[in-house]
Amino acid sequence: MAILTIILVITLKCLFISSQHHPLDPLNPNEISQIQKIIKTSHLATLPNLSFHFVDLEEPDKKHVLQWLSSNKQHKSFPYRRAKVVIRGGGQTHEIILDLTNGSITSEHVYKGDGYPPFTFTELLQAARLPFNSFQFKDLVARRGLNISEITCFPFTIGWFGESITRRAVKLSCFYRERTTNVFSMPIDGLTILVDIESMQITNIISDRQKTPLPEAEGTDFQFSGVRPDPIPCKGNNNRSFTINGHNINWKNWRFNVGFNARAGVIISTASIYDSGKNEWRRVLYRGHVSETFVPYMDPSSEWYYKTFMDVGEFGFGRSAVTLVPLTDCPCNAAYMDGYMAGGDGLPQNVPRAICIFERYTGNIAWRHTEVGIPGKVITSGEPEVNLVVRMVATVGNYDYILDWEFKQSGSIKVGVGLTGVLEMKPTTQTKAVQTKQEIYGPLIAKNRIGNNHDHFITYYLDLDIDGEDNSFVKANLKVKKAKASPRKSYWTVIKDTAKTEDDARLRLGMKASELLIVNPNKKTKLGNDVGYRLMTGQPAVSLMLDDDYPQMRASYTKYQVWVTAYNKSERWAAGFYADRSTGKDGLAIWSHRNRSIVNKDIVLWYTVGFHHSPCQEDFPAMPTLANGFELRPVNFFERNPLLKT
Ligand SMILES: *[C@@H]1O[C@H](CO)[C@@H](O)[C@H](O)[C@H]1NC(C)=O
Ligand SMILES: *[C@@H]1O[C@H](CO)[C@@H](O)[C@H](O)[C@H]1NC(C)=O
Ligand SMILES: *[C@@H]1O[C@H](CO)[C@@H](O)[C@H](O)[C@H]1NC(C)=O
Ligand SMILES: *[C@@H]1O[C@H](CO)[C@@H](O)[C@H](O)[C@H]1NC(C)=O
Ligand SMILES: *[C@@H]1O[C@H](CO)[C@@H](O)[C@H](O)[C@H]1NC(C)=O
Ligand SMILES: *[C@@H]1O[C@H](CO)[C@@H](O)[C@H](O)[C@H]1NC(C)=O
Ligand SMILES: [Cu+2]
User: Fold this and answer.
1) Which domain of life is it from (predicted)?
2) Distance, CA 445 to ligand 7 centroid (Å)?
3) Which end of the chain is more exposed for a tag (fewer CB within 10 A), N or C?
4) pLDDT, tens only, 92-148
5) Ligand 1 in reach of 80 Cβ (< 6 A)
């Protein structure tokens, strides 16, 4: 037995060492267990109601990561291996930094500012069960003639509406499951239950006498009943043209690290592209991930006004990651990666197949040309487009977010956001979509159901390091000029404007024609152009709410799609780290208003993918995927088209 243990320990140690692939690798399950043990054996263990809300890698300084990556790694250990942990205990929020190499707490303090860390799954589950032990709730349900065994209550975060003192709380809305699997399509109207999370007690049940009856269950099911078409014949997984070494991916001319945490979900780190002309790896993206989401519903009624969700900061996209289903979520040639995070008890949890990685044969043409200008010949050449996709799906209550990072051999990185799932609906007695005097907050989308209007804003953190850290943000504005001495009267030309400070880099798109570039002013092509990448934006949408509306104050960064800030390791979460019940005193807008210089500096690009969603009948019973996104495309980064090898 003892020998066995020793062998096991040695094996584990070896595994641990050989798994040291990258200093930005996410915490592995052993490390998460180690963290839990350190906290549980420290003085913090005596805190009443200790729970773990955030456990993540405390990333080493960029300088050290880059040094490590460029050195001979064989004999070197990581710059350092630390974790950031946020716990709640005794009614307070504690921030802790742990050193995983020597197993000690290197710093800790109590956070006293506004807002709270993400909820744990355990808290949400406990809250959702409370009504079933409440006599008042049971009585209300019985009086409505509903069977309590057929009710599901979901916790919703409550935002902030100017209160000077906040508590951690959620509101429960309840739904009826009888004869349907589409729980969200059967909302029980006029019933809101307020739960105080710290005491884990119901503090108020609001029941409206004027409630609208339950809509019918008939026709609400979304379960797939048809015959699935045969998947496209697949050669199998044994001949992939990418390799996965721990979290490091190598594919064609790209290499990068795929990380995962409870908050952001997928994190892409140190993405570099091989330049066959220069014979070297060149840096593009140091770190990229979803930073925050904001989903405000456009219904000011007492039952709906508070629905202004920040899913990433309040729950977590990684926390909401689902196990991907082969052939439905990812094609047959996909490889899968698990996602690890800490539960509310600090112990490691695994989401099997949280991420998939696959080559996508897009059916598109990467480039082509037919030349007929040479007498007696027709020359045709070109290549089909094959890309590499890294995908995850976060299911946050009713919505499913499909999050793709797609790498192209041309040097582009395409980021896709797909929205699907089911709508949040409101029952109505209305049966026809006629204009009434009565104000409604969304279209009639199914029998006796309104699909409430809302937005989705998905904000990306993009720390681009184009050929090095020192970059500039350039607005290449298209300016119309009058033509002189020409039959033409006008033409456009490009006038480049380098943003000097953060103030100058806050943009609302669609107002004027411009190309947005991140360039490295210290690196030029042989022809003398600044090397760069262009942000190709998608369908633009900014928040339309008034600036002094409370939800808008918390998400003030959604008034612009584009921001550029000076790099600061601790500025990553657009709505501030403590997004739950935040008041707008931290976050991207605040950082940007420092108006730091961003010329030839390490800078971060923030881009918000936005959707204004006024639902329609096709969104019921489940919604066909609605897609948007953006692309980062090389501009004068290469000497020539990198698809045409020299
Ligand atoms: C552990 O390592 C950190 C450096 O990462 C150091 O600051 C700390 O003093 C060390 N603690 C102990 C107990 O060795
Ligand atoms: C209530 O629902 C439960 C679970 O579906 C079922 O077993 C039970 O018979 C129902 N009760 C009534 C009174 O319909
Ligand atoms: C601990 O949690 C329980 C309910 O789960 C609550 O009644 C109690 O007040 C909490 N204690 C502290 C110190 O927060
Ligand atoms: C595997 O891939 C290589 C290179 O793409 C190709 O030449 C070879 O035919 C493939 N083998 C199989 C069994 O598909
Ligand atoms: C980095 O950001 C944090 C949080 O916004 C701030 O407190 C700190 O002063 C910043 N550091 C520098 C050097 O600007
Ligand atoms: C930001 O800094 C620039 C350059 O120093 C200055 O021109 C501009 O007025 C500043 N903006 C604000 C709001 O102070
Ligand atoms: Cu929507």
Assistant:
1) Eukaryota
2) 13
3) N
4) 999 999 999 999 999 999 999 999 999 999 999 999 999 999 999 999 999 999 999
5) yes
Answer whether 503 contacts ligand 6 (Cβ < 6 A): yes
Show the tokens assigned to 603. Answer: 């800078």
- List active site positions: 311, 399
- Which ligand 5 atom lies nearest to the CA of residue 566? 14
Distance from the CA of 578 to the center of ligand 3, in angstroms? 21
- Is 92 a pocket residue for ligand 3 (Cβ < 6 Å)? no
Q: How far is residue 413's CA from residue 406's CA, in Å, rounded to a whole number?
A: 6
- Expressed in angstroms and rounded, the spacing between residue 149 Cα and the centre of ligand 2 is 6
Task: Give the 3-state secondary structure of residue 262.
Answer: coil
- Ligand 5 atom with minimal separation from the 590 CA: 5
pTM of the model: 0.94
646/642 Cα distance (integer angstroms): 9
d(CA 30, CA 37): 11
Return the sign of the alpha-carbon dihedral for residues 187, 189, 191, 192. Answer: positive
User: What whole-number distance in Å separates Cα of residue 338 and Cα of residue 352?
Assistant: 5
Predicted local distance difference test score (pLDDT) of residue 97: 98
Closest residue (by CA) to atom 13 of ligand 4? Answer: 239
Name the burial class of residue 617, with classes exposed (0-12), middle (13-18) and buried (19+) by CB atoms within 10 angstroms of its CB: exposed
- What is the tens place of the pLDDT at every residue in 416-449? 999 999 999 999 998 888 766 667 899 999 999 9
